[in-house]
UniProtKB/TrEMBL annotation:
InterPro entries: GrpII_AminoAcid_Decarb, MfnA, PyrdxlP-dep_de-COase, PyrdxlP-dep_Trfase, PyrdxlP-dep_Trfase_major, PyrdxlP-dep_Trfase_small. GO terms for molecular function: aspartate 1-decarboxylase activity; pyridoxal phosphate binding. It is an enzyme of class 4 (lyase). It holds the Pfam family Pyridoxal_deC. Keywords: Decarboxylase, Lyase, Pyridoxal phosphate. The modification N6-(pyridoxal phosphate)lysine is found at residue 205. This is Probable L-aspartate decarboxylase. It comes from Natronoarchaeum philippinense.
Amino acid sequence: MRAEPQDFSRVLSSMCTEPHPAAREAAETFLATNPGDPGTYQTVAELEGDAVDALGEIAGLDEPHGYIASGGTEANIQAVRAARDLAATDAPNVVAPESAHFSFRKAAGILGVELRTAPVDSDYRARVDAMTELADEDTALVVGVAGSTEYGRVDPLAALSDVADDAGALFHVDAAWGGFVLPFTDEEWHFDHVGVDTLTIDPHKMGRAAIPAGGLLARSPDVLDALAVDTPYLESTEQATLTGTRSGAGVASTVAALEALWPAGYREQYVRAQNNAEWLADALDERGYDVVEPTLPLVAADVPRSLFARLREEGWRISRTGAGELRVVCMPHVTREMLESFVADIDALART
Ligand code: 0PR
């Protein structure tokens, strides 16, 4: 194979990042293991238990049930699937804000569940009144987002948890991206603080594990039981995951990253990322662009289409929100120097 490894020096669009060196090494060591077959690959199966316990600690859950999934999409699909199968209705629906990740659309399509999406408020957070209006006795799951894909917003989770309770539904929080930064903010997102039933928290995003490593956590073992199927010809008797053969690399690198970084390293990483996001927001604001205040390390700003296109031509990997704004995710590989050079390019291009 002749190909250069990925260069992160102009990547501002991704929710993934360079793995921690220890995570990279662990991924390589466990590349040929399959946690989907714990009877054969015992070490990686034990590591998965450690990973779930550590994710539970981050998310404020003493006895977490869950597993390392292929990513946030799988975790969200499985949360919908468990809720559907636990609900006592023939016509289940899921109520989510329109800011929820598109993986919920996949989940609804695959699982034959109706997805009802509620509008968000002027700060891009779920509107509790609109969510309440959509929920009824057939609601199997209410979804809140803790760190939204487009604007990094955290929904009013305690109130949404009440909406779920009132409808007799489970409450799922999607902290796929936010989970590794929220512990260092004042946001209320914990299992401890709000009545969360299931949670998505992805080590392969802010957690600095190798891809593929998503996390699904549940308060009750019933959720995993609902997902489990019998596995007649494996030594283990049941499997709750969506995929069969899975990556031991994702599992082992999750444990390695958590050992290296939780909590001090992640705190440092968050502070640096948040400062960078605020610095970029100020820089764009000073240049007259409308900026969405970054509450988490993600900046959105209204820049002209032509400027966006020319920045991409300069090699900047940038993305857009649904509304067309420039979107920059301040991941751990994004340094102040990178952002300074990005803003310098904006200045140079805006002049011509
Ligand atoms: N939930 C939230 C809140 C997300 O932001 C994402 C991914 C998911 C779930 C789904 O996670 P997986 O992609 O792990 O299944 N959000 C990013 C997006 O769709 C994913 C992404 C990641 C995109 C890296 C580009 C990229 O380079 O925008």
